[in-house]
Amino acid sequence: MASDYQRVVLLAADLSEHSEKAFNWYVQNFHKPENKVVVVHTPEYSMGPSEMSTSKIEESIQEANAKTEMVKTKFVEKMSECGMNGEFVALEDRNPGHAICKYAERINATFIVTGTRGLGKFRRTMLGSVSDYILHHAHVPVLVCRLKYLLKDDKY
């Protein structure tokens, strides 16, 4: 029996191996053809207080835009290869975790899939963790894929 209900899966993505492995794990273990996959990326601008010149700001923006295009190309190709119904969205926000949670609510996501670098408690406290933020603030279930538990020979 076919359902009219379409699950919307928000997948947080960047250029890391963790993100790619989380995508692959989702495809192999959870994906259903009727799901709509929304791959979300939040560009990161790496600038310190000493780098506030106009040229440094422009350079940082260009670098972030180039990385965003790389993420888009990578995941749009992966979705196409898998025959997925999906789209790519870039979100502008200084807090990626907050942006992802807010966007998940906006699109009525059924659940969120994210990778994690597996930071220790001290590093996570000092550096923050997008997956940790999502896990504690999302209003939908969150699937956090830790790299060390994922198969090395995934095929996607």
Task: Please describe what this structure looks like.
The protein is of the alpha/beta class. The protein has a single domain, classed as Rossmann fold (3-Layer(aba) Sandwich), CATH 3.40.50.620. Helices cover 43% and strands 18% of the residues. It has five helices and five strands. The protein has helices spanning 17-29, 54-81, 96-106, 121-127, 130-137, and strands spanning 8-12, 36-41, 85-90, 111-116, 142-146. It has a five-stranded parallel sheet, with helices on both faces. Helix 3 crosses helix 5 (130-137). The radius of gyration is 16 Å and the shape is globular. The two termini are 28 Å apart. The model is unreliable at 122-128 (pLDDT under 50). It comes from Elysia crispata (lettuce slug). This is UspA domain-containing protein. Residues 8-146 form the UspA domain.
Helix-strand category: alpha/beta
CATH superfamily: HUPs
Uncertain runs with pLDDT below 50, 5 residues or more? 122-128
Please describe the biggest sheet, giving its number of strands, its sense, and whether it closes into a barrel. Answer: 5 strands, parallel
CATH architectural label = 3-Layer(aba) Sandwich
What order do the strands of the largest sheet run in, or round the barrel if closed?
A: 3-2-1-4-5
What is the class in the CATH system?
A: Alpha Beta
What is the share of helical residues? 40-55%
CATH fold topology: Rossmann fold
* β-strand number: 5
Tell the overall outline: globular
Strand content: 15-25%
Number of domains: 1
Query: What is the terminal-to-terminal distance?
Result: 28 Å
Order of SSEs:
EHEHEHEHHE
Gyration radius (Cα, Å) is 16 Å
